[in-house]
């Protein structure tokens, strides 16, 4: 009896388990050195390749020295199917890794930092548009609300908020520099920024403290 040897295809030794990560996750590195086996050839001769990536906009997948590295696109979520091919002596086997990237609600971010404001002492009320200060990649910017967190010099300027406008009222005959911290809130999350308000001193005209004059007769 003569038995002719047959070169079997490589096999999956350890099948992939589904992978679930959060949006903006750090790179995932998976060791594939024991993932495939070849009973008829040296396992070290198995070559690996990414055969298909169903969602390259979500994840990039590369293999180097039996290490599969997954890089996640910032602020993206969804599902990707990565097919890995193991080849040995012109035969191959494929295995599929399913990856689920869960969406995370990011906080708002500072889009346009406010420019410092310089006014003269006793200037009239000044209004600042805050609608371009913050942005939220996960929600509608129109829903961002605003709050004054701190005013370092309430003795020279009084800030208040009306919708998306910051209203500044200046104290009479007061000057100096104040830092006003504003928070933008979106879906329970927030970001902050500082606004510098400089009030310059003005040399006021002299005034008469007592205008009555008394004279003796003749």
Which terms summarize this structure?
single chain; 218 residues; mainly beta; Immunoglobulin-like
Tell me about this structure:
The model has no long low-confidence stretch (mean pLDDT 92). The protein starts with 10 loop residues before the first strand and ends in an 18-residue tail after the last strand. A 4-stranded mixed β-sheet has the order 2-9-8-5, with no helix packed on it. It has strands at 11-12, 19-22, 28-31, 36-37, 47-53, 59-64, 67-72, 78-88, 91-102, 109-110, 117-120, 126-129, 134-135, 145-151, 157-162, 165-170, 176-186, 189-200. It has 2 domains: 11-102, Immunoglobulin-like (Sandwich), CATH 2.60.40.10; 109-200, Immunoglobulin-like (Sandwich). Strand 17 and strand 18 form a beta hairpin. 17% of the residues are buried. Helix content is 0%, strand content 50%. By secondary structure, it is mostly beta strands.
Give the helices and strands, then pairings.
Elements: E1 11-12, E2 19-22, E3 28-31, E4 36-37, E5 47-53, E6 59-64, E7 67-72, E8 78-88, E9 91-102, E10 109-110, E11 117-120, E12 126-129, E13 134-135, E14 145-151, E15 157-162, E16 165-170, E17 176-186, E18 189-200
Parallel strand pairs: 2-9, 11-18
Antiparallel strand pairs: 1-4, 3-7, 5-8, 6-7, 8-9, 10-13, 12-16, 14-17, 15-16, 17-18
């Amino acid at each position: 009896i003569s038995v002719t040897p047959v070169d079997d295809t490589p096999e999956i030794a350890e099948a992939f388990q589904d992978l679930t990560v959060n949006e903006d996750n750090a790179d995932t590195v998976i060791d594939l050195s024991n993932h495939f086996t070849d009973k008829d050839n040296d396992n070290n001769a198995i070559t690996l390749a990414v055969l298909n990536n169903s969602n390259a906009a979500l994840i990039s997948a590369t293999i180097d020295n039996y290490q599969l590295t997954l890089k996640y696109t910032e602020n993206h979520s969804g599902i990707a199917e990565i097919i890995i091919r193991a080849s040995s002596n012109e035969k191959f086997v494929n295995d599929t890794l399913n990856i689920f990237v869960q969406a995370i609600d990011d906080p708002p971010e500072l889009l346009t930092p406010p420019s410092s404001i310089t006014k003269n002492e006793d200037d009239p009320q000044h209004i600042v548009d805050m609608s371009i200060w913050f942005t939220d990649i996960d929600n509608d910017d129109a829903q961002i609300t605003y709050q004054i967190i701190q005013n370092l010099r309430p003795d020279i300027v009084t800030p208040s908020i009306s919708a998306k406008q910051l209203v500044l009222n200046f104290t009479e005959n007061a000057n100096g520099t104040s830092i006003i911290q504003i928070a933008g809130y979106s879906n329970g999350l927030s970001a902050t920024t500082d606004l510098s308000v400089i009030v310059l001193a003005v040399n006021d005209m002299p005034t008469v403290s007592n205008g009555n004059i008394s004279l003796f007769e003749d």
